[in-house]
Amino acid sequence: MRRPTPSFWRSCASFGRFGTNFVAAPFPRRSPSGGLAVRCFSTEQLWRGVRSTSFSKNLDFKDGSESTFPVYRVLDADGELEPGVELPFSLEEGVDMMRMMLKSKVYDDVLMTMQRQGRISFYCTNYGEEATSVGTAAALKPQDMIWPQYRELGAFLWRGLTAQEIADQNIGNEGDRSKGRNLQVHYCMLEKNMQTVHAVLGTQIPQAPGAGYAYKLDKEDRVSVAYFGDGAASEGDAFTGLNFASVYGAQTLFICRNNGYSISTGVEDQYKGDGIAARGPALAIPTVRVDGNDLVAVYIATEAARKKCVEEKTPILLELMTYRVGDHTTSDDSSAYRKEDKEEVKKLQGVGPLPRWKKFLESKGLWDDEKSKEVEAAARDEMIQAMKAGETKKKPPLRELFTDVFSDLPWHLEEQAAYAEKHCREYSSEYNMKSVRGLDGPAPTVDPKRIASAPRVLPPAPRGEVKETTMVQAINDALSIALSSDNRSVLFGEDVAFGGVFRASVGLRDKFGEDRVLNAPVAEQAIAAFAVGLSVAGYKAIAEIQFADYIFPAFDQIVNEIAKYRYRNAGGGAGNITIRAPCSAVGHGSMYHSQSVESYFAHCPGLKIVIPRGPKQAKGLLLAAIRDPDPVLFFEPKVLYRARIQGPDGQVPVEDYELPIGQAEIVQEGTDVTLLGWGSQIGRLQAAAAKAAEEGISCEVIDLQTIIPWDADTVQASVEKTGRLIIAHEAPQTNGFGAEIAAKIQERCFLHLESPIQRVCGFDTHFPYAWEEFYVPSASRVLAAIKAGLRCWL
Ligand SMILES: Cc1ncc(C[n+]2csc(CCOP(=O)(O)OP(=O)(O)O)c2C)c(N)n1
Ligand SMILES: [Mg+2]
Questions:
Q1: 3, 158, 176, 207: least CB-packed within 10 angstroms?
Q2: Which of 66-70, 277-281, 775-779 is least confident?
Q3: DSSP characters for 194-259?
Q4: Which of 22-36, 210-224, 402-416 has the lowest mean pLDDT?
Q5: Smallest-distance ligand from the CA of 232
Q6: Which residue's alpha carbon is at the smallest distance from atom 3 of ligand 1?
Q7: What spacing in Å lies between the alpha carbon of 201 and ligand 1's midpoint?
Q8: Sign (positive/negative) of CA torsion 476, 661, 404, 553?
Q9: Is 461 close to ligand 1, i.e. is its CB under 6 Å away?
């Protein structure tokens, strides 16, 4: 097979409209002398990304059965090691692993009993899978970052999680590291390089490569390790995670525990191919299938995979074949669906990791039944005592309900925290006050400054030289400054390397190199997830979603992962994440290139949302967003990208500057009515205000700029002055962010209002192609609302 040369691709790229497009046929090209220089390539040279272009006249369908995966095993069911195989660890370490596996089993016994006694509400055992977690964790190094699913108790124990921490977490008391916020068994131990267990299946799989890529950039002897089950492997996140890791050569170890079940669903109903392993080679990931009940094989495979991962800068996939002996959780009864009968389960238990490893150690004279009893009794006692101690502890203070949503409490959470404290004291008989720390004491005093919506820290105002700049240039400038002022920052997204489809990142790859300005495979959920991994590894992640309309595949990663990361970890955030996305109407975009999506995300705690109205705002706000300790969604009205903006908004300071997130700006002062909007709507509000002025009506125009946390005080002060409020946004009216503003402002300004608060919004239809001019809240619709509001008063 002839592989095309790099110089071929370079010349090929020069034909493409965007430089990287697939070229279907060679174009004739003008020679320097003016004549046509025809360059011919054979067809197969143009088929990129396949290993073979040899032709065949046979119509040969392949179904994957051509290749199979033997199961790597070195310790048989009788505990006998294959001849010639050396133990990869000392016998002493082998005994430690036996203790740990036994401890995991006994803790499971005790906690399951506690659940049955009603002392904890839920539990999930690890029976039969002890070697998959203890064996892998033991073969990893302490610096390796583990992204667990939920059945990896052994790995947590190996990394040092104590009985007391386990008890406190399962009870959800004030001793719990995540402040009682997580469901049982969702352990939190960040300082030992263990990510917190989270409930959404598969989301950790594309997150791990973000950290794995960072370790590669930092040339570290470190891997990122994602554990997941055979069920989770069906999630789209699993595919995109494996693919991202492969494309980026991220130092990532994927460990699938294939235990035959996903709750009641057997693997027969989960997939039809050859297990999970078969998926690795399809994505060029070195893969091996291992007997997950063989502690020695698990250890050898993990150690070798780890080494290969770091040395060859490649992800590795391990499929560990095991069996879920217990029920899925304490909410489950597996006898209702289990395919194997009781005798078979017993047999499978017999070849499980504990009996097998015990036999081996017994053969070496290092273990016996007495030893088992002794270890079991000590572990049982330890957990019972820990539970008793945990039950005497209170729940964390009520205020902790509100902390860690953001790095600091924004005004609306201060307001809600104060309300909650006051309410539960007034209605104390309705609540279990004694169980919560601090509720029995005096109510904490409320600092009015913290309830004020203005940003608490203001960056210095920009000074110096300004330059007339378009919004897209201003964004490019901000990205360039962000990348040069922090070399631990990475910019990535679809087509970003070549400059992005809107050219916002043009030239940045040349400036900052291919390691820091990356094209992403087309998978928005993996783009968002990759940002989590980078951020966990201490990088600033600047991601681009090509159009806001295509942010929805990433919705889960954004609202369930990025937004909740700080809260579920009780601080310590993956906050260094900025997601940019071009949004809103563009004149011809129809329903999939025009949406304004801010209110979907405004509903979710933990995300800041910013929308600039012009070049000056775009640069200053984007730099502030990138440096903000919380994740920020930065929506850019794409219709403004190349618009010529008259006046100061188009005069962009050349220096590095930030504009404050959380502050609205009064764009134009007035006395009769307040017009409030954001992004491209501001121009329409100004046009409406100008028309109203011709009729002697004075409008105050406010650009909200930040949707969350929004600046209620500025709006309130304006409405107290004008007595009228019109909110305009392109997004559909129902449940748009205007509804939230209207509710809050009528609460605060009820006695000042001269007319009902009005909304001028997109209609509750999908964004239309043919009727765009009627759909967007035009200046004349705003003008009509202004007049209606004034008539109301007359
Ligand atoms: C996205 C998502 N869908 C559904 C669930 C509900 N759920 C919890 S565990 C589970 C089965 C997972 O099976 P597997 O990945 O094989 O892990 P195992 O329980 O076998 O260890 C399901 C469907 C979930 N937590 N997240
Ligand atoms: Mg499973």
A1: 3
A2: 66-70
A3: BPPP-SSTTTHHHHHHHHHHHHHHTT-S--EEEEEETTGGGSHHHHHHHHHHHHHT--EEEEEEE-
A4: 22-36
A5: 1
A6: 201
A7: 6
A8: negative
A9: no
For 90-330+343-391, which CATH class? alpha beta
For CA atoms 275, 266, 252, 153, give the dihedral sign: negative
**Fold match between 90-330+343-391 and 665-793?**
yes
What pLDDT sits at residue 53? 83
Contact 491, 518 (CB under 8 A): yes
Q: What is the CATH number of domain 466-653?
A: 3.40.50.970
Tokens of 103: 């401890």
Give the residue ranges of DSSP H helices in 427-571: 448-451, 471-485, 508-512, 524-536, 555-556, 565-568
The per-residue pLDDT for range 483-510, each reduced to its tens digit, is: 999 999 999 999 999 999 999 999 999 9
Closest CA to 644 of 469, 512, 515, 476: 469
What is the tens place of the pLDDT at every residue in 364-376?
Answer: 999 999 999 999 9
pLDDT, tens digit, 9 for 90 and up, residues 431-451: 999 999 989 788 888 999 999
Q: Does residue 40 carry a pLDDT above 80?
A: no
Angle of helix 369-391 relative to helix 163-171, nearest 10 degrees, comes to 50
528 C-alpha to center of ligand 2: Å?
26
- Asked if residue 9 has pLDDT above 70, the reply is no
Q: Residue range 452-457: average pLDDT?
A: 95
Pocket lining: 232 vs ligand 1, CB cutoff 6 Å:
yes
Domain at 665-793: CATH code: 3.40.50.920
Say how many Å lie between the CA of residue 105 and the centre of ligand 2: 18
186 is catalytic: no
328 labelled catalytic: no
* In the chain, where the domains are located: 90-330+343-391, 409-451, 466-653, 665-793
Residue 125, ligand 1, Cβ within 6 A = no
Pocket lining: 151 vs ligand 1, CB cutoff 6 Å: yes
Neighbouring CB atoms inside 10 A of 475's CB total: 27
**230 C-beta closer than 6 A to ligand 1:** yes
Catalytic residue among 198, 412, 593, 729: 593
Residue of 123, 257, 263 to test ligand 1 pocket, by largest number of atoms within 8 Å of CB: 263
Choice from 255, 262, 264 to test ligand 1 binding pocket (greatest atom count within 8 A of CB): 262
pLDDT of residue 32: 42
Cα(110) to ligand 1 centroid in Å equals 23
Atom of ligand 1 nearest to the CA of 150: 21
E strand or H helix at 376:
helix 369-391
The chain-wide mean pLDDT, for the chain, equals: 93
38 pLDDT higher than 80: no
What does the block give as tokens for 136?
A: 């892998």
CA distances for 128 relative to 95, 122, 154, 507, 630, angstroms: 18, 19, 11, 54, 40
C-alpha 231 – ligand 1 centre gap (Å): 6
Query: Tens digit of pLDDT for each residue in 649-696?
Result: 999 999 999 999 999 999 999 999 999 999 999 999 999 999 999 999
Q: In ligand 1, which atom is closest to the CA atom of 202?
A: 1
| Whether residue 714 has its Cβ less than 6 Å from ligand 1 | no
Q: For 623-640, how does the pLDDT look when each residue is reduced to its tens digit (9 = 90+)?
A: 999 999 999 999 999 999
User: Which ligand lies nearest to the CA atom of residue 227 in the structure?
Assistant: 1
CA–CA–CA angle 447, 453, 459 (5° rounding): 105
User: Tokens 């590291």 map to which residue?
Assistant: 177
Is the preceding peptide bond at 396 cis, omega within 30 degrees of 0?
no
- Between the CA of 650 and the centroid of ligand 2 the distance, in Å, is 56
Closest by CA position to 109, among listed 436, 381, 368 = 381
Please report, rounded to a whole number, the percentage of residues in the chain having pLDDT higher than 90.
Answer: 89
CA distance 418 to 445: 9
